[in-house]
Amino acid sequence: MDGDTLFSIGELARRTGVTVKAVRFYSDEGIVPPLDRTPAGHRVYGIDAVARLGLVRTLRELGLGLPAIRKVVDREASLAEVTAAHAEALDVQIRTLRLRRAVLTAAAGRGSTPEELDLMHKLARLSAAERDRLIAKFLDAACRGLDPGVVSSMTPVLPDDPDDAQVAAWVELAELTQDPGFVADTRWLAERVAAARDGGLAPPRPDIVAVVRATADLTLDPASPEARSIVDHVTAHPACPDDLPAYLKAAIAPRRIRYLQLLSRINAWPPPEPATPAVDWFLRALSVRRGSVGP
Fold first, then answer.
1. Residue 259 CB coordination number (10 Å)
2. In angstroms, what CA-CA distances link 245 with 43, 85, 220, 232, 260?
3. Per-residue pLDDT for the chain (295 aa), expressed as one digit of tens each?
4. pTM of this prediction?
5. Which phi and psi angles does 60 have, rounded to 5°?
6. 260: which residues sit within 8 A by CB, 6+ positions away?
7. CA angle centred on 292, ends 291 and 295, rounded to 5°
8. Contact in structure between 233 and 293 (CB atoms under 8 Å)
9. Are 230 and 216 in contact, with CB atoms under 8 Å apart?
10. Which of 64, 128, 183, 200 has a CA that sits 20 to 30 A from residue 211's CA?
């Protein structure tokens, strides 16, 4: 077929798989203009209209709008430039949809109230800069003036291309940071962690929870002489705070444990080693050692 072949609007529609109505629309928009008109006023198209309309159809199926398509077919912008820009726009939409799905999944799984759902939705819509400001505000309230190491160990960093689990974890973690009670509890514990690290201990400076986890023996009766020896060892450790029971209970509080689990998921860190069984055992042994009623 040579370049002089002309097609009616119906023939062009059949050759390209586009409806006559769509061809007429693109023609009226100047995206696929007719080459000429018949004496009766009917539009006719050249062979180049077949390729042009095929490109338009492909770009429309990929979701590009008419302004972008017009730039491509009129050669005001290269196909690579337009499709790259569209791919970037789709990336934003995908991230937004992931966040929305995370909110809906969390709300369905937890039986959230309308107020909780509204908060989660607002958190999911935050930009990267807004997310950073929200976390910075929490860390300032919870860790202001403390060892930078404490701050960095508490900082979530959502990657540019997070997976679904990281997105869901960030929404839940961000919700936690909005709870004044959790902020106050985190501050209380962080101050004591910092005090232990500043207490003249040579590096590495262990946290007393790590000491308990390393020395507790869950096979022993908390009232046994062996358990008493373990309690004496821990309470004599340089990292042991004066308010040891309160410190340990704060360290294994469910919301703190949940925060650390979510933090590990977001930052792709190894999951935190469970401390609750060892701490629970130690608190019972400590209670026996001090002659008080066990928890």
1. 20
2. 88, 57, 20, 14, 20
3. 445 688 999 999 999 888 999 999 999 988 888 989 998 999 999 888 888 888 888 888 878 888 888 888 888 777 677 777 778 777 777 877 777 777 777 777 767 788 877 877 777 777 778 888 999 999 999 988 877 777 888 999 988 777 878 888 888 898 899 999 999 999 998 888 777 666 554 445 578 999 999 999 999 999 999 999 999 999 999 888 889 999 999 999 999 999 999 999 999 999 988 999 999 999 999 999 988 444 4
4. 0.64
5. -65, -40
6. 272
7. 135
8. no
9. yes
10. 183
Cα distance between residue 15 and residue 191, in whole Å? 74
In the 8-state DSSP scheme, what is residue 222? T
The secondary structure element, H or E, covering residue 110 is: helix 79-110
Q: How far is CA 68 from CA 28, 59, 78, 80, in A?
A: 17, 9, 10, 12
The dihedral formed by the CA atoms of 154, 160, 165 and 168, expressed in degrees to the nearest 10: 70
Q: Which residue has the tokens 């990292």?
A: 239
